[in-house]
Structures are given as structure tokens and as C-alpha cells.
Amino acid sequence: MGPIYVFDTYAKNAAGRILHFDVVLLEKDPDQALRCAREWLKSIGEDGATVDARNCTYCHSETTVPPEMADEIRTRGYAIYKLEGCPR
């Protein structure tokens, strides 16, 4: 697997709680990162959460990928690295 691109993302759910997570992709594509963020939020039952291009921004790239994240990228096309306020 080549380099990965990390997009620092913040969403606000219907209750006003902030969800902070990284969207990890194989391409430096902000539109795809935003689509993936929304897809993931929907998959965890937070489809009412708001996230937009101002809250999903390219942060950095990495040359190595943890094995569990590589599996997630292969399976889903992206990975999520949960930070603050996200379900574990």
C-alpha cells in the first residue's frame, strides 16, 4: 500500500456533541474525504450530524499504515481513526 492521506474532521451531532475523527484515504481528495465522513457518520447512526468542507481538511500524509487500518481501507475504501467524542 502506498502513502495515505489524513483529513482532520469535526462533525456536530443533533444533540450538539462534537465528533472528532480522521478520514484516511489512498488519495488526496477532499471531496472523497467529505463523502466518506458522511457515510461513516450515517453508519454509526449519526446521519443527522453536520460536517462540511471547512470541518474536513487535509492534515498530513503518512508512508506507513497500521495493518488494521490497511484492512479497513481495502474493505471500505477508507479508514476512520476515532479521536474525541466518537463511539469506541
TrEMBL record:
Family annotation (SUPFAM superfamilies):
NE1680-like
Q: What is the name attached to this protein's record?
A: DUF2024 domain-containing protein
The record ties this protein, via InterPro entries, to:
DUF2024, NE1680-like_sf
Q: Which organism is it from?
A: Candidatus Methylocalor cossyra
Name of a matching Pfam family: DUF2024
